Amino acid sequence: MTHLDANAPDTPEYLVNADGYLTGTVSGRYACAHCDEAFGRKKVAKADDGMVVHRRCLEGYDNMRSAKRHVERREAEEAELAEKRARLAANIERRGTDMSAFASFDNPEIRSLDGEDYAEWCFFLEAVTTLERAEKRLAEWGERLAGNPENAFSWSMEAFDAAADKSVFGQVAYYFERGLSVEEIKELADREVYRGARSPARSTSPVSNLMEQEVVAAYARVTGRPY
Ligand SMILES: [Zn+2]
Q1: Rounded to the nearest whole angstrom, what is the distance from the C-alpha of residue 1 to the centroid of ligand 1?
Q2: Torsion of CA 10, 13, 14, 15, to 10 degrees
Q3: Which of 8, 30, 126, 156 sees the fewest Cβ atoms within 10 Å?
Q4: What is the pTM of this model?
């Protein structure tokens, strides 16, 4: 005995009649998709997926299907997560966890890099360079602050910029350590740029607003896009 799909192309229209019974000619050949028993003379109903079940089985059948969908979704999510974990682990295996060491001219691998691998190396080299430059600029500003605080604060825009770079490209180093790809990092940066544009800094502290603007600008630099 098989289960009856009322939507199957070769299934006659009149199969479930107005009284809710299967026509006599087929009622003995098919079984309920829920309880697996023959329909016999019991009332039947069509489920949303086109399968015919006993009317008393309809609710149970719907519940079973939704539970199954739930399990399938969970399994798909878990598989996706496992795949992502494997991808991160493979990146860590290949690149190590130290962004500066990877994106260094001392890295013996770089001579053999090409295409995407070379672009990846360049992306992280740019991040390392930006991070180092930010640290240097902050140190210089710190010296000016100690020597002539009034002047240092008057001309502190650059320090904001450098502080934002240090924070944001430091975050890139952390992502590198965790094994994220360039694409994934750019995607996260994109989100930050979008967030900054959608809810611009509007704190009562003008300095905090300024800092946040610079952070958004630094994330835009991470995306590497010229527009
Ligand atoms: Zn049934």
Answers
A1: 13
A2: 50
A3: 8
A4: 0.74
Residues 219 and 125 in one domain: yes
Both 88 and 186 in one domain: the answer is no
The 10s digit of each residue's pLDDT in 28-86 is: 888 999 999 999 889 999 999 989 999 999 999 999 999 999 999 999 999 999 999 99
Ligand 1 centre to CA of 118 (Å) is 62
Q: Which residue range(s) make up the domain with 89?
A: 1-95
Region of 36 on the Ramachandran plot (φ > 0 left; ψ -120 to 50 alpha; else beta)? left
pLDDT tens digits along 110-162? 777 778 888 999 999 999 999 999 999 999 999 999 999 999 999 899 999 99
Question: What torsion do the CA atoms of 94, 97, 100, 106 make, to the nearest 10 degrees?
Answer: -40
By the CB criterion, residues less than 5 angstroms from ion ligand 1 are 32, 34-35, 54, 57
| Same-domain pairing of 105 and 217 | yes
CB 22 within 8 A of CB 10: no
In the chain, what is the straight-line distance between the N-terminal and C-terminal CA atoms, in Å?
A: 64
Strand 30-31 and strand 2-3: the pairing is: parallel
Q: Residue written as tokens 């079940």?
A: 53
